[in-house]
Design a protein that fits this description.
The complex is a heterodimer of chains A (493) and B (250). Chain A is built from 13 helices and 23 strands. By secondary structure, chain A is of the alpha/beta class. The chains are: A alpha/beta (493), B alpha/beta (250). At the A-B interface, helix 10 and helix 11 of A face strand 4, helix 2, strand 7 and helix 3 of B.
């Protein structure tokens, strides 16, 4: 029989479909990092003195820090002096006012990414035609380091919602930025967060006022484009008392030879009775089948439920990056607050992921749920690392963790590193874990009903991820399913 | 022309140098016929089902396989299914998280695409599946559950028959579908197979026991031993085997 085995299928690898480079004239700083570079970045952004100092302080602390060596990851260390820390599309100087003014290369990039035309116009800041209402998603695009366009501003402004690049918020709402920047992820939190604090390029800022339910999903598309440019987003979302916001983040990146560093920081603050839902679909270039190239994704994401009954929910679908180091976490400080983490992490070929979450219970009756699904194919290695910490003050805290791994082929690895630190004997902590394989029998059963192997694997994997996909907003659930299918095209030839 | 035509089939388990299980098997099934294959353990019954459906792990070393004049040998398993071959599994596998309805839709969509035929709209498809499920005593809730996930043995087998009726293939192979069924479930399964039977299609029943043949009356009964058909006859051969065992033949 000429039927290929799963191993053969995993060997084959489809070309990364978002792998292209946009030829936009860019202004890029030469590689290297020192105080002058930080002052330059800060000056270019016309930042206030306090922020320049804040960056410099972070830089000095970072110099004393070392890269974490505990993750289950193997990669060539990054030379931080070999990275350029600032890059901005030049045609941005005046800001695009209509589609005609936008660099056509940029529009072609959106097209290749499959961003619909009306959204492209929105991205470029063209006022939407009220006769033709477009999708209810406000988009703030980070194209390399500068936010290209911010849309739906009026609708959001009417609701009192602030949604703008953080560089703009520094000027328009300095009191909020000053109060909350670094309040969840301090400058010296960890090596990568320290670096980000020193050199962060741009990112989104969101403030939802008291009692406001954000009238639309907020969305950001990130792309890393300039050669050898590290990208250091900084996102800050504040949900004031009783407010509600759902934020979507989606990423793809063009094909590259060299490894590209990405060290973002995302901070979420949910005050009393507020709710933040943060969803990510990540598809950065994972490197080729031999592990050459690909993004290094070292991200610090953390939210704090600062007030009583606050809720923060992270949902992520990760299929890209060569190396992933990422633990979206929730600090449950307010009584009765809720933290959730729903994750699908898919690795193929030589990809490596060490990802998970931290749930820090401090308030009374705090509850957290963790559902982590890891899918490993090829020669990839995927680790779940999760911490559940219950402080002495967190009476009647509850956690439920479910951690499932699915293996495709027999050359990949899946690991689970759960950490439980309980200092309160009223807490209830549950941990469930399973490891399974896409079996030849399952594939054959599908084939015998006329379904080809590729479709079968995709169906089985989607079934495995169902609990997480359910948590995604509609717009993303479809995209996530498609993304898994594309990523698995690599896994099944 | 036979619907299913197997000539001088030799097949090994594993690669070329694997152990030979089928040793020159001949089998012709005409449209409208039901054949039963019986035989002792290890005679090659399940291997035959697997080789016909193209399951990985076997190598055909000699002989020909055709279904409705189409050569099956070079075809992938899903292409054989698309050519009209259906295998009801002895041990249906579980596919967690993939609902039965989703699975059935994926299957019929793939087959329709291969046949370049129109698919019914989703609503009438769901109605059709529900009606079939009812006739097989399957709770409609089971359509929302993962494929065979937590199903009882009987439910799994009835699910196979549901798929048989929905797909309506040219040729159905039932690999010990009767094993592990109580008498009520056996009757439901047999009724399903009888409903499927018509003048255009064919059935190959692989079974260990004569019991199933009380409910699905075969046109021809074959005895398989050591990779070859050593005896063929009408339904009375099955009764004889039941009474005397296989030893009088081998």
């Amino acid at each position: 029989m000429s039927q290929p085995s799963i191993d053969d299928l995993v060997e084959a690898r489809r070309e990364y479909s978002a792998g292209f480079v946009t030829d936009v004239e860019a202004e890029t700083l030469p590689p290297g990092l020192n105080e002058d570079v930080i002052r330059y970045i800060s000056a270019r952004k016309d930042e206030p003195r306090w922020l320049t100092d804040w960056r410099l302080q972070a830089y000095h602390q970072w110099q004393e820090m070392t890269e974490p060596d505990w993750p289950h990851l193997h990669y060539a260390k990054v030379d931080f002096q070999d990275i350029s820390y600032y890059s901005a599309p030049k045609s941005q100087a005046d800001g695009p006012r209509s589609l005609d003014e936008v660099d056509p290369e940029l529009l072609r990039t959106y097209e290749k990414l499959g961003i619909p035309l009306h959204e492209q116009a929105a991205l470029a800041g063209v006022v939407p035609d009220p006769e033709k209402p477009s999708s209810n998603v406000a988009v703030d695009v980070v194209f390399d380091s500068v936010s290209i366009a911010t849309t739906f501003k009026q609708k959001l402004a009417d609701a009192g919602v602030i949604f703008c690049p953080i560089s703009e918020a520094v000027k328009s709402h300095p009191e909020l930025v000053k109060k909350y920047l670094g309040s969840v992820v301090p400058q010296k939190d960890n090596f990568y967060a320290g670096l980000n604090s020193a050199v962060f390029s741009d990112g989104s800022f969101v403030y939802i006022p008291k009692g406001v339910r954000c009238p639309m999903e907020l969305s950001t598309y990130f792309r890393i484009n300039e050669r050898n440019t590290g990208q250091f987003e900084r996102t800050l979302i504040i949900a004031d008392a009783g407010s509600h916001v759902s934020y979507l983040e989606g990423c793809t990146a063009p094909m590259r030879d060299e490894n590209q560093l990405h060290a973002a920081v995302v901070e979420l603050v949910a005050l009393e009775d507020a709710e933040i839902k943060y969803s990510t679909v990540q598809n950065w270039y994972p490197g080729d089948e031999n592990g050459r190239g690909g993004i290094y994704n070292f991200v610090t994401k953390r939210g704090v439920c600062a007030g009583a009954r606050a809720k923060i929910s992270w949902t992520q679908v990760e299929t890209g990056s060569a190396i992933t180091w990422k633990y979206p976490s929730v600090v449950l400080r307010g009584d009765d607050s809720v933290g959730e983490f729903y994750s699908v992490a898919l690795t193929n070929n030589r990809q490596q992921a060490d990802t998970g979450t931290k749930m820090i219970h401090m308030g009374k009756n705090t509850r957290s749920t963790i559902v982590a699904k890891g899918i490993s194919a090829g020669r990839s290695d995927s680790s779940y690392r999760g911490l559940v910490r219950v402080s002495p003050t967190a009476t009647h805290a509850r956690n439920h963790t479910q951690c499932d791994s699915l293996l495709i082929g027999d050359l990949c690895g899946a690991h689970t590193f759960p950490y439980i630190e309980n200092k309160n004997n009223t807490a209830i902590i549950e941990h469930e874990a399973s490891t399974s394989k896409v079996s030849d029998d399952q594939l054959f059963a599908c084939q015998q009903r006329g379904i080809d192997t590729e479709k079968a694997v995709s169906m089985i994997v989607n079934g495995f991820c169902k609990e997480v996909f359910r948590e995604l907003p509609m717009e993303f659930a479809v995209e996530a399913g498609k993304l898994l299918e594309v990523s698995l095209e690599g896994a099944v030839g | 022309m036979s619907l299913l035509d197997v000539k001088d089939l030799h097949a090994n388990v594993g690669e070329e140098d694997g152990k030979e299980i089928l040793k020159g098997l001949n089998l012709q099934i005409q449209a409208g016929e039901v054949h039963a294959i019986m035989g002792p353990n290890g005679s090659g019954k399940s291997t035959l089902a697997n080789v016909l459906s193209g399951r990985p792990g076997y190598t055909v070393t000699r002989g020909t396989l055709t279904l409705d004049q189409e050569n099956l040998c070079p075809l992938e398993p899903h292409e054989r299914a698309q050519a009209g071959l259906f295998l009801a599994f002895q041990y249906p596998v579980e596919i967690p998280g993939v609902s039965n309805m989703e699975f059935l839709k994926a299957s019929t969509d793939s087959l329709a695409k291969a046949h370049e035929t129109e698919q019914p709209d989703a609503a009438s498809f769901i109605r059709e599946v529900r009606t079939l499920a009812e006739t097989l005593d399957l709770d409609p809730q089971f359509l929302k559950r993962g494929v065979n996930e937590g199903f009882s043995g009987g439910e799994k087998k009835r699910n196979e028959i549901l798929q048989l009726l929905l797909i309506n293939p040219k040729m159905a192979i039932l690999d010990e579908t009767d094993s592990g069924l109580d008498i009520d479930a056996l009757k439901v399964v047999a009724e399903g197979v009888n409903r499927y039977r018509n003048a255009q299609n064919g059935v190959l029943l692989i079974t260990h026991y004569q019991r199933l043949l009380d409910y699905i009356i075969p046109d021809v009964v074959h005895v398989l031993a050591d990779g070859q058909i050593i005896q063929s006859g009408d339904k009375n051969l099955a009764l004889e085997l039941e009474a005397k065992g296989y030893t009088w033949l081998t």
